[in-house]
Amino acid sequence: MPSLRNDERTAYVRALYQLVAERARHRCEYCRAPEAILNLAFEVEHIVPGSRGGADDESNCALSCRSCNLYKSNQLDGQNEITASTFRLFHPRHDRSDDHFRVDTASGRIIGLTSVARATVSALQMNRENQLAARIQWIRIGIYP
Ligand SMILES: [Zn+2]
């Protein structure tokens, strides 16, 4: 981000959120959680963190729920829980969610269809108990997946 005054920075951050959120249709670009159901705006997440050379523009940003952003942190790769092999994480700008993930609507579990997806599910801890409980409620009221 270029050097900005505080009011310019606030306007930039607001415009970036609007662009990223609308592009993502107000869903987490990792777990597909719907933003509208939560009482907090989702976060603009840097896919490649700035600390690891990622750009600070919309090409490197994704809309993320608090949980996915918290667990992703500055990671770029994760481990397959079964093989312990390391794979890059899902990249919302380069990968298509439907090619990598599916949701088991009975359990609410996100199933990784690829090594990248399985590493992402593990690194972002997408199937924690409270995640599953929330997803089951969202499925019941027809807003997920
Ligand atoms: Zn999420």
What does this structure look like?
It is a single chain. This protein is α+β, with helices and mostly antiparallel strands and 145 residues long. The protein has one domain. Helix content is 34%, strand content 14%. The chain is built from five helices and six strands. The protein has a two-stranded antiparallel sheet with strand order 1-2. Strands 3-4 form a two-stranded antiparallel sheet. The chain has a two-stranded antiparallel ribbon with strand order 5-6. β5 and β6 form a beta hairpin. The longest helix has 18 residues. Bound molecules: zinc ion. The site of zinc ion has 8 residues, from α2.
> Which ligands appear in the coordinates?
zinc ion
- Beginning-to-end CA distance, first to last residue: 34 Å
Strand order of the largest sheet: 1-2
Stretches with pLDDT under 50, minimum 5 residues: none
Report Rg.
Answer: 16 Å
User: How many helices?
Assistant: 5
Name the beta content range: 5-15%
For this structure, the quaternary state is: single chain
User: Helices and strands, in N-to-C order?
Assistant: HEEHEEHEEHH
| Total tally of structural domains | 1
Determine the mean pLDDT: 94
Describe the biggest sheet?
2 strands, antiparallel
Helix content: 25-40%
Counted beta strands:
6
Which overall shape is indicated by the principal axes computed on the Cα atoms? globular
- Please identify the structural class as seen in this structure: alpha+beta
